[in-house]
Amino acid sequence: MIPQINPLxxxxxxxxxxxxxxxxxxxxxxxxxxxxxxxxxxxxxKEHDIGILILRKTKPAVKASCLRLFLLWLxxxxxxxxxxxxxxxxxxxxxxxxxxxxxDDIE
Length: 107
Known about the structure:
The protein has 107 residues and is α+β, with helices and mostly antiparallel strands. The protein has a four-stranded mixed beta sheet, covered by helices on one side.
């Protein structure tokens, strides 16, 4: 199966020169999917020595949504990665790391 990429959001992220981009849309608009696909294909596969921090309000929300979605697309694209499940860190490519954390964690 070839993964579906939301071209509207993906192209917006890929061509935007702004440091912060707001993505608006209703539930199931494809925002999260496009962001994860963009981060994997444009950042983690093409750059090196970068760190990406992904936050949600609570740790269970991070695991249930962000981490799960990221792992789904890494597997869908057939990319090799290492995961530290206790620290919620994914290492991929040329010394790239994705950190998952929550806002309710004081540290």
